[in-house]
Design goal:
- The complex is a heterodimer of chains A (280) and B (268).
- In chain A, strands 1, 2, 3, 4, 5, 6, 7, 8, 9, 10, 11, 12 and 13 form a 13-stranded mixed sheet that branches.
- Chain A is α+β, with helices and mostly antiparallel strands.
- Chain A is 20% helix and 44% strand.
- Chain B has one domain: Deoxyribonuclease I, Chain A (4-Layer Sandwich).
- By secondary structure, chain B is an alpha+beta fold.
- In chain B, helix 5 links the parallel strand 7 and strand 8.
- Chain B is globular.
- Chain B starts with a helix and ends with a strand.
- Chain B has six helices and twelve strands.
- In chain B, the strands form two sheets. In chain B, strands 3-4-2-1-12-11 form a six-stranded mixed sheet. Chain B has a six-stranded mixed sheet with strand order 5-6-7-8-10-9.
- The chains are: A alpha+beta (280), B alpha+beta (268).
- At the A-B interface, helix 3, strand 3 and strand 5 of A face helix 3, strand 3 and strand 5 of B.
- Strand 5 of chain A pairs antiparallel with strand 5 of chain B, so a sheet runs across the interface.
Chain lengths: 280, 268
């Protein structure tokens, strides 16, 4: 075997290792030298964009979500058409659907081919409850709510996420995409007080041995308490600060980073937030 | 002063009573198969349910997002009745699922389900069984699930199951054991109601563990239509609930099972 052939094999092997990974710990990727053109110019580097997307629909304030028919229609259109129902989304949080919004929730979930799960955040009065709805794509075997002070609940479930690894050339063009399905423990809730935050995220629900992620909202004044509570290998990042609440992400820094959070107005003060996180 | 204090609380402390029904809906096919081919309409089912005054409903033989259903029936029921919903999967069926449903006008704060023990003579199959496998595990894959609901500030566990219809006592006892295990019926963490199509008599040998751990809700079934003595309600732990207004509602052609109903009141 010539030296040239040995070097080519070694180069190929190193590229395969860089792009490797498995379903349980998808990883790899990074920048790949672009090589040179036939004219001898250096090509820009290719990059790998790894994305898992989670959506949240919210006003990030203290108002109920379905405050008008127009808003209900806009949210339905977003979930059913923009996200293409079950085909374009994995986990979608609808904030403050509340008990009064149950008819709208059922209308949207049915039309989107998704399964709704309620996450209580406050007992206002008998028959009047504040809370979120999480839309998943399959019937869940466990969507466990734990009671916190003030009628608030933190919920934990096992979420099937469809990650995508995209190879992008130097001009920003997507060359190829690779699906990377994964299942992760997912935590969510809407928190108003420091007590709720502390009880929602004890060390036991964020173990170093597990790859847990959380997306939820917290009152802006309490975000610093959330930062103080999240420790060990886990980090918390503010994704979007609204009028009264902050949308946040929690994950282990050795497994995750945040690509970004894009928002779009659905109707009035209701926005859709698309959270993009990258596995390492 | 006590009255003034109670008035400040955000919820009522009146006795927790739940109007509860269990109904095997035969996938909304109807006994004359008129549902099949006309989109499996639920209007008549909803109208009958409304006459029961139900706050909480468990249903068996339910399809979710299967290709033959023209719309998602669980969502349709939830919308028409203004209820929270939970689908308990037994097996995958035609792009969707077959199983059971819990509906509640009270918010659901926690959800869980599991499959009953089952093996098929043909690995991977979930319906139809033969020989020793049929004797040991029953015909089809069945399941149990619960929804913890908040009733006037108190958590109540609603458990729904559908047991095997082949009728082997040991199979049913194993499935009952599975219910006890999932819902902690031997040491209930919350006042609990268990209901569904048990495919056997409510006090039969197969139901021994339910009757040892909880209380059976007796219903006068004289004149009942369809399967007379398969759908049952139990409450846990013993002595925790009082049942009243227990009765059936005849369903006509809507199903081969009647609605079994009771008002269940917590004894505090």
């Amino acid at each position: 075997m010539t030296l040239h052939k040995v070097l080519m094999i070694l180069a190929a092997a190193s590229m395969l290792a860089a792009c490797g990974g498995n379903k349980d710990n998808p990883g790899g990727g990074g920048n790949t030298p672009g090589g040179t053109t036939p004219e001898g110019e250096t090509k820009p580097e290719e990059t790998i964009l790894r994305e898992v997307k989670i959506q949240a629909v919210s006003t990030l304030s203290s108002t109920t979500l379905f405050s008008s028919d127009a808003i209900a229609s806009a949210v339905k259109n977003y979930v059913v058409t923009t996200l293409n129902g079950r085909n374009g989304a994995d986990v979608t949080i609808l904030e403050r659907t509340d008990s009064k919004g149950i008819v709208n929730v059922n209308t949207i979930a049915g039309a989107a081919y998704r399964n709704p799960y309620f996450v209580m955040s406050k007992i206002v009065s008998d028959g009047n409850y504040e809370g979120n709805t999480v839309l998943l794509n399959t019937p869940s075997r466990s969507f466990a709510g734990t009671s916190l002070p003030g009628g608030c609940y933190r919920s934990i479930t096992s979420a099937d996420l469809n990650g995508v690894a995209s190879k992008i050339d130097g001009s920003g063009k997507v060359i190829s995409t690779t699906p990377v399905p994964m299942t992760r423990t997912f935590i969510t809730g809407r928190f108003d007080t420091a007590d709720q935050v502390r009880e929602a995220f004890p060390a036991s629900v964020l173990p170093a041995s597990d790859n847990v992620i959380a997306v939820g909202t917290v009152k802006k004044s309490v975000f610093s308490d959330l930062q103080s509570t999240i420790g060990g290998n886990y980090f918390v990042e503010a994704l979007e600060e609204g009028p009264e609440y902050t949308l946040f992400f929690v994950g282990q820094s050795r497994y995750w980073s945040v690509n970004g959070c894009q928002s779009s107005v659905l109707s009035g003060s209701v926005k859709a937030y698309e959270v993009s996180i990258a596995w390492k | 002063m006590a009255t003034a204090f109670l008035a400040l609380l955000p919820f009522s402390l009146t006795a927790q009573s739940i109007r509860f029904i269990t109904w095997n809906v035969k996938s909304f096919e109807c006994t004359d198969d008129s549902g099949n081919g006309s989109g499996f309409p639920i209007t008549e089912h909803v109208n009958l349910i409304k006459t029961t005054g139900a706050d909480v409903i468990v249903m068996n033989e339910f399809e979710s997002f299967t290709s033959r259903m023209t719309s998602e029936k669980m969502a349709d029921l939830g919308r028409e009745l203004g209820m929270f919903t939970y689908f308990i999967e037994s097996y995958v069926k035609n792009e969707g699922w077959y199983g059971n449903v819990i509906l509640s006008k009270y918010p659901i704060v926690s959800y869980a389900s599991q499959l009953h023990p089952y093996e098929n003579e043909t690995p991977g199959k979930t319906q139809g069984n033969n020989g020793d496998y049929r004797v040991k595990y029953g015909e089809d894959q069945r399941s149990v699930g619960y929804a913890d609901i908040l009733v006037n500030g108190k958590t109540v566990r609603i458990v729904c199951t559908h047991l095997d219809h082949v009728g082997n006592t040991q199979v049913l006892q194993n499935q009952v054991k599975s219910c006890v295990e999932l819902a902690s019926l031997d040491k209930p963490v919350y006042p609990t109601i268990v209901a569904g199509d048990m495919n056997t008599g409510g006090t039969s040998a197969a139901m021994t563990q339910f009757n040892e751990l909880g209380d059976y809700v007796t219903v006068n079934r004289s004149g009942i239509q369809g399967y007379a003595n398969l759908d049952h309600i139990y409450t846990f732990p013993k002595g925790k609930w009082t049942a009243s207004e227990a009765r059936y509602y005849n369903q006509g052609k809507l199903s081969d099972h009647s609605i079994i109903a009771a008002t269940l009141t917590l004894n505090d």
